[in-house]
Amino acid sequence: LSEKLASKVSIKTEQQLGDAVYEAMGLSAQEDTAASFALNEFFAALDVPTAYRIRITVVNDNVVNAFALPGGRIVVYSALLKQVQSYPELAALLSHEFTHVNNRHSKSIFRKLGSKVFIGLLFGRFGNVTSVLVNHADDLKSLTYSRKLEKEADTEGLNILTQRKIDPQGFVSLFNHLKASAPSNELPE
Hints:
mainly alpha
């Protein structure tokens, strides 16, 4: 029920929730502003239509990961960026994370946090919802999407690349580099 209600949340509210979670994670102190600027410019050049204001932040950390928050925030860790070796790979990474935002995959956050978020949304208590999300910020950083949502993000990300005539091999190359750099050859989430 909370996930259904979450699908009715406005983009503005989604953005406020995503911003609150981002701030609670304390990632802005570790931001590589030059890399963030470059990635935002890169994504803007892809010219992907969306109702969201996409904001990409590069965080200096040795975590090989990226994730999307509600409302248009995408976080990419610098260690992951070091694994990216080509324009098509970077386009693949960002189009995948963008799809999570654009398709509102963060609704699964609401399902996982359940009743507290649902009740806050039901009664218009934005502060309560934000408080729950902020209190679970570290959990949200490691939140994984279902295989179905990951496949959707891969498929739609691939469509973004092919529509822009970017080599779709970027996805394969990215996954191969990630697998090679991961401990015991397991892909990071």
